[in-house]
Design brief:
The protein is an alpha+beta fold and 490 residues long. It is built from 15 helices and 24 strands. Strand 20, helix 12 and strand 21 form a beta-alpha-beta unit. Helix 3 packs across helix 10 and helix 8 packs across helix 9. The longest helix is centred in the first third of the chain and has 19 residues. The structure holds adenosine-5'-triphosphate. Adenosine-5'-triphosphate binds next to strand 11, strand 16, strand 17 and helix 11.
């Protein structure tokens, strides 16, 4: 039987959503391309993220910094010293596995953050062997996830690195941005861009890749004067949380979370905003904030919650984003290595950082995975309109009797009103609907004989397959009205 994962990835490959990079030359594992349909979905996800997070404060801005950064940056951030994963290599076939993930697969518990010695002991105790050739693994070693590269001519010894997260850009640009933005805190600097990690065993399609896109917001603030937030907006909103030690996730109103989770309104507000964004992507109730234990979280994170979404393809909750209160680790490290003074004016300490970190690819996949629907005569993605590749398809019923001309007129009018439409005149109308449904287009507009007589068109709804008759002149307005429904917004 074909699994949910196989069905979703099959459509993804067939309909140019996401596919392996440079397939004809043999793909390097962990590299994927977004095709003509996938690029539209990804762009819309990114735009929705921008709109949601950058509108939270007037002093939140998007910047674009380089992907290649100098070695000093990663000395300051601690990546050169600490950014490694434990690798277990099979003594016979040479396959490499991330040791903590291997143990998790065998023993059904999490082992993130354990030392190499602890992991080696567990491997021996539980007699973990290679799943392919049943041979034992060599001693576990830490392996850096950084991608170094030589910059310039070969005599030039300048070493650069591909950034392993977008976050270092805002930290390195903090001083300039702070000055340019009237030295006001909080200051939010966001980047949507590529990150690179030489993962030991890339897997699960775009879930663990070596090149991926992140959407990260770094909020710089004074820890002694926490910024005010419009907490009343979220006070009755319920977070879904799985605190350390709890067996099941529970709902907590933001007003109660402050006491129960021991975090100020400022932090709870941003958790709520993250959850609301995930909810708007058609994933209501399928997520939770999982708190990391002291062993699991990075030593500098005071608060660390992973935002996890349930994916039917994997049959479990998986991390798609992180909420990290990183204290003064970042600016403190950059100030020490660069000898720049990054203190808040008049204070003897640097701003602290709250990081909201999203993996775009994991989010896009989680949305597709949860939106997949199968009926007797069709499969489709019930995507919220905000991330559908197009808002509507425009179809002449037949290619004669002036229907194509009229359909092109309707198509042009929709585009001019800011509605993202495409035109398709090939094949039977049923096949055109099916093609559009398969990639999640919410509406189909058909121009038929009656259109020529009375100026009305058919609007077909993807999920219910219901049809309504609307005057062509009022179509943009009607689509905007429909966009305000739970299906999403234009
Ligand atoms: P993991 O524990 O799964 O390796 P992480 O905790 O190291 O992830 P972060 O460093 O917090 O991840 O990165 C923030 C986000 O970037 C993650 O929540 C995830 O969505 C995304 N991400 C991280 N690594 C990868 C990867 N190799 N491939 C795709 N997305 C990734």
């Amino acid at each position: 039987m074909t699994s949910h994962f196989e069905k979703v990835t099959e459509i993804s490959l067939k309909r140019a959503i996401i596919y392996p990079d440079a397939e004809m030359h043999g793909q390097m594992s962990g590299f994927f391309d977004y095709g003509s349909v996938g690029s539209e979905i990804k762009r819309r996800w990114e735009n929705a993220w921008r709109e949601h997070f950058l509108s939270l404060n007037q002093n939140f801005h998007e910047i674009q910094t380089t992907i290649v950064m100098p070695e000093q940056v990663f000395k300051a951030s601690g990546h050169l010293e600490h950014f490694h994963d434990p690798v277990a290599v099979c003594s016979k076939c040479g396959v490499s596995e991330r040791a903590d993930h291997l143990l998790e697969e065998f023993l059904g518990e999490k082992f993130e953050g354990l030392t190499v010695q602890e992991l080696n002991a567990l491997m021996k105790k539980h007699k973990i062997v290679c799943t392919k050739c049943k041979a034992p693994f060599k001693e576990i070693e830490d392996k850096s996830l950084m991608f170094p590269l030589q910059v310039g001519a070969s005599e030039d010894k300048t070493i650069g690195y591909l950034r392993p997260e977008t976050a270092q850009g805002p930290y390195a640009s903090f001083k300039r941005e702070f000055r340019a933005n009237r030295q006001k805190l909080p200051l939010g600097l966001a980047i949507i861009g590529k990150a690179f990690r030489n993962e030991i065993s890339p897997r699960q399609f775009v879930f663990r890749t070596r090149e991926f896109t992140q959407a990260e917001l770094q909020v710089f603030f004074d820890p002694k004067e926490l910024p005010e937030v419009p907490f009343h907006e979220v006070k009755d909103y319920e977070l879904i949380v799985l605190p350390v030690g709890a067996k099941d996730a529970k709902k907590v109103k933001c007003s109660k979370a402050v006491k129960e989770l021991g975090m100020s309104e400022f932090f709870v507000y941003f958790m709520a905003k993250m959850q609301q964004f995930i909810e708007s992507m058609g994933l209501p109730g399928k997520f939770r904030f999982a708190q990391l234990s002291d062993e699991e979280k990075a030593f500098y994170n005071k608060y660390h919650w992973d935002l996890e979404v349930f994916c039917p393809s994997f049959g479990k909750f998986v991390e798609v984003a992180g909420f990290h209160y990183r204290t003064d680790h970042d600016l403190g490290g950059h100030a020490a290595v660069s000898k720049e003074n990054l203190n808040i004016p008049g204070k003897d300490y640097v701003p602290h950082v709250l990081e909201l970190s999203f993996g775009v690819d994991r989010n896009v996949f989680a949305v597709l995975d949860n939106a997949f629907r199968e009926e007797s005569d069709r499969t489709y993605f019930a995507l919220p309109q905000a991330v559908a590749p197009w808002d509507a398809g425009v179809y002449p019923l037949v290619n004669r009797e002036s229907m194509p001309e009229k359909a092109l007129e309707v198509f042009k009018a929709l585009r001019e009103s800011g509605i993202k439409a495409f035109y398709d005149a090939s094949g039977t109308i049923g096949k055109r609907y099916a093609r559009a449904d398969e990639v999640g287009v919410p509406f189909g507009i058909t121009i038929d004989g009656d259109t020529l007589k009375d100026g009305t068109v058919t609007v077909r709804h993807r999920d219910s397959k219901e049809q309504e008759r609307v005057s062509a002149a009022q179509l943009p307005e009607r689509l905007c009205e429909l966009a305000a429904t739970p299906q999403g917004k234009l």
